[in-house]
């Protein structure tokens, strides 16, 4: 299990493709070079102004060191203005513990489900019946965000999984996502 960030960006109208092109050209390798595992990158099929992506770290200490290296490094410094001009909000971030997720090649659509179960036991009963390894189940990581320059959502205890499953008996938010193919 890794520390995983599920990042959901709200973009200025019409700028998603600009950000994706920049992200794929500069930020994937730039992050991987400093030890960040860049996971799935997606277009939100229900909102043309949203970009969703995941990145993973072995542990919280490596997360902090890798983020410091990336955000003070030349790749970010040289391209941050071009990236930031596309964004309205980049602070919708869930800090999770899980396996990360990259869709299978050729996948056209992925459903990501985010839920806040009433208690862990209720969720565990649901998961035992309806979720398997293919769903890449993630749970909130409650460690303190030790890189506060990048905020994460706090005060929530969520579960996130990928792929279709029987809906749980409590409210969920589903994201219909189209994988970005490099």
Tell me what the structure shows.
The protein has 182 residues and is α+β, with helices and mostly antiparallel strands. 29% of the residues lie in helices and 32% in strands. An eight-stranded antiparallel β-barrel has the order 1-3-2-8-5-7-6-4. β2 and β3 form a beta hairpin. It is globular. 32% of the residues are buried. The mean pLDDT is 97.
Descriptive terms for the model:
182 residues, alpha+beta, 4 helices, 29% helix
Topology (elements, then pairings):
Blueprint: E1 2-11, H1 16-33, E2 37-44, E3 50-57, H2 60-72, H3 74-84, E4 87-98, E5 110-115, H4 120-130, E6 138-140, E7 159-162, E8 172-179
Antiparallel strand pairs: 1-3, 1-4, 2-3, 2-8, 4-6, 5-7, 5-8, 6-7
Helix pairs in contact: 1-3
| Count of DSSP H/I helices | 4
What profile does the largest beta sheet have?
Answer: 8 strands, antiparallel, barrel
Which H/E pattern describes the elements?
EHEEHHEEHEEE
Provide the structure class: alpha+beta
Q: How much helicity do the residues have?
A: 25-40%
The beta-strand count equals 8
Strand order of the largest sheet: 1-3-2-8-5-7-6-4
Poorly predicted runs: none
What overall geometry do the principal axes of the alpha carbons give? globular
The gyration radius over C-alpha positions equals 16 Å
Strand content: 25-35%
């Amino acid at each position: 299990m890794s520390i995983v960030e599920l990042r959901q960006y709200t973009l200025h109208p019409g700028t998603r493709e600009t950000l994706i092109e920049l992200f794929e050209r500069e930020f994937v390798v730039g992050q991987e070079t400093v030890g960040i595992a860049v996971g799935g990158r997606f277009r939100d099929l229900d909102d043309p102004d949203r970009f969703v992506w995941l990145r993973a770290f072995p542990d919280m200490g490596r997360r902090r060191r890798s983020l410091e290296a990336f955000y003070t490094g030349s790749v970010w410094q040289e391209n941050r203005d071009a990236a930031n001009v596309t964004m309205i909000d980049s602070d919708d971030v869930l800090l999770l513990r899980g396996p990360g997720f990259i869709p299978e090649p050729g996948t056209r659509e992925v459903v990501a489900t985010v839920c806040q179960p009433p208690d862990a036991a209720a969720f565990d009963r649901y998961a035992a019946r309806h979720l398997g390894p293919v769903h890449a189940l993630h749970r909130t990581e409650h460690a303190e965000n030790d890189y506060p320059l990048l905020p994460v959502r706090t005060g929530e205890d969520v579960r996130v999984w990928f792929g279709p499953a029987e809906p749980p008996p409590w409210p969920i938010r589903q994201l219909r996502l189209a994988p970005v193919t490099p």
